[in-house]
Write a structure and sequence with these properties.
The protein is an all-alpha fold and 91 residues long. The protein has one domain. 81% of the residues lie in helices and 0% in strands.
Length: 91
């Protein structure tokens, strides 16, 4: 399930704060608005991508449940897609 924009934004800020050189840029008063806008755009983009991945996963699971693939190539594509989604996307 896709994380919310607020959760993603909080994770980005937490990560940035853990890096001493970059964290100074985040608290710099002249750059705060720019950095917040940039982080917000990145968080929205990540959220949108995760929603797309959720939709793809649901669609793939629906297609797999409706019928078995007919040839070896399509079986391998389905196997790869399921393995990819489980390894790289599941939280």
């Amino acid at each position: 399930m896709a994380r919310s924009k607020a959760v993603i934004k909080a994770q980005i800020i937490k990560y940035i704060s853990s890096i001493p050189i970059i964290s100074q840029l985040v608290v710099n008063n002249s750059q705060v608005a720019y950095n917040n806008n940039f982080i917000d755009i990145v968080a929205r983009t990540i959220n949108f991508f995760e929603q797309l991945m959720d939709a793809y996963k649901v669609d793939l699971e629906d297609k797999v449940s409706k019928g078995a693939p007919t040839n070896a190539f399509s079986k391998n594509v389905v196997r790869f897609s399921i393995i990819y989604l489980n390894l790289f996307y599941s939280q």
